[in-house]
Amino acid sequence: MSEAATQTNGTTNGNTNGAVDERPVFFFDIDNCLYSRSSNIHLHMIRLIRSYFQTHMKIPTDEAERLHQTYYRQYGLAIEGLVRHHQVDAMEFNSKVDDALPLEECLSENKELRGLIEELRNKGKCRLWLFTNAYKTHGNRVIKLLGLEGLFEGITFCDYEHSPLVCKPKKEAFERAMSDAGISDKSKCYFIDDSLLNCQAAVDFGWGKVIHKLEPEDPLPTNPATEYHCRDLMELREMCKELF
């Protein structure tokens, strides 16, 4: 297992006896996917990122906003551009941005979501894995606040401690997720993410069922990445009947 993965319930790749587990793996994005964008965490994130640009890079607000958007579009993660072009310490960035987010003010236990994930897990037809571009401290913090601890076998995250950074939508990120989760058959990979770019990358990579998570107010993409989309995770019961 690569250093990009940590276990959340003491198991190793879903096995306790060394046998190969041939079940599908359902990869869940975390931010703006397991919780709604209406939680406004992304607004706090944007504020902290731009503050970091201004304070630590000594650039004006308009330039900070431009670089933030440019790096997000180009790399899928603002920190990727900072590390590449400005020699920023990714772990320092994480401490000033992700780990500084007031998550306790924005998130709370989601019993309905826990019930859904528990049902999916207890059916035993697939294994559950987290797949995020955040660092592990942020991902695990969100899962704890949502009351979802112990339901996922592990997490593949963007490892800020190692360069170059590997994050979605890079092909290497999807390869790492499969390696971490211990699955080799792309057709058995399920994936849900709020990012159109990440969904398109998963489809291009050959994952079996890719679901684009939209907010209730979001219009359907003009050029959808996949035929599957949902506005509420509860729709997964119908969308993935074969797993329930």
Could you explain the architecture of this structure?
With 244 residues, this protein is an alpha/beta fold. The protein has two domains: 5-35 and 108-243, Rossmann fold (3-Layer(aba) Sandwich); 39-104, DNA polymerase, domain 1. It has ten helices and seven strands. The chain has helices spanning 41-57, 61-75, 78-86, 90-96, 103-106, 111-123, 136-145, 171-181, 196-205, 236-239; strands at 5-7, 25-28, 127-131, 154-156, 189-193, 209-213, 228-230. The protein has a seven-stranded mixed sheet, sandwiched between helices. Helix 1 packs across helix 2 and helix 2 crosses helix 3 (78-86). The longest helix has 17 residues, at 41-57. The protein is globular. The two termini are 28 Å apart. The relative contact order is 0.18. Residues 1-17 have low confidence and may be disordered. It comes from Pyronema omphalodes (strain CBS 100304). GO terms for molecular function: nucleotidase activity. InterPro entries: HAD-like_sf, HAD-SF_hydro_IA, HAD_sf, Pyr-5-nucltdase, SSM1_domain.
Give a summary of the structure in a few sentences.
The chain is of the alpha/beta class. Helices cover 41% and strands 11% of the residues.
